[in-house]
Amino acid sequence: MKRSTLILAAALSFAFSVPAFAQRSHPSPGGPPSGAGGGRGNGNGSSMGESHENSAVTHTDMSHASPSTVLSHNTAIADKIKTLTGQDAATACNGFKNMGQCMAAAHVAKNLNIPGGFDALKAKVTGSGSMSLGKAIKSLAPDANSKSEAKKANKQAGDDLKGTSS
Hints:
This protein is mostly helical and 166 residues long. The chain has helices at 2-22, 50-53, 59-64, 67-73, 75-85, 89-93, 99-112, 117-126, 133-140, 146-163. The longest helix is centred in the N-terminal third of the chain and has 21 residues, at 2-22.
C-alpha cells in the first residue's frame, strides 16, 4: 500500500510540474516565443518576468535567432551586415548558426582588417572543421589578442542587434 501511494505521489508531482515549464516563454526557431499573446493576463500572475514578455523581440532573442529569421523582419540589420561585409546580408550570414555569430564575425573582419576579409573568417567559423571565433582570429591575425577582439566584436554585435530591435 505504501509503495502505490509513493508512486501516485511521484506521478502527481511530475504531472503538476510539467505545465509550469510549458507555460514559460522561450524563443522558438523560426517563430515567435511560445505562448506569445496567449499567456498574458490570464489572472494567475505567476509568470516570472511577465513585464519583459511585452517587448516584441529583444537583442538577446535576435542574436540567437537564425539569420534568415532576423533578416526577413529587420532591414536595419541587413543594412549593417552589408556595410560591414560588402555583401548581401543573406549571402554573408548563410552558414552561421545565429545572427549574433554572423554579426560578430563581420565586426572582427572589419576591426582587424583580416587578410582575406570576412569570407576568410567565415570559412574558418562555418566551414568543415569549423572553429570558435577566437581560434579563427588567432589563425588569421596571430598578432591580435584573439580573446579581447572576440569579446569586443560580440559586444558590438549585441549593441547593433539591441539598437535595431525596435
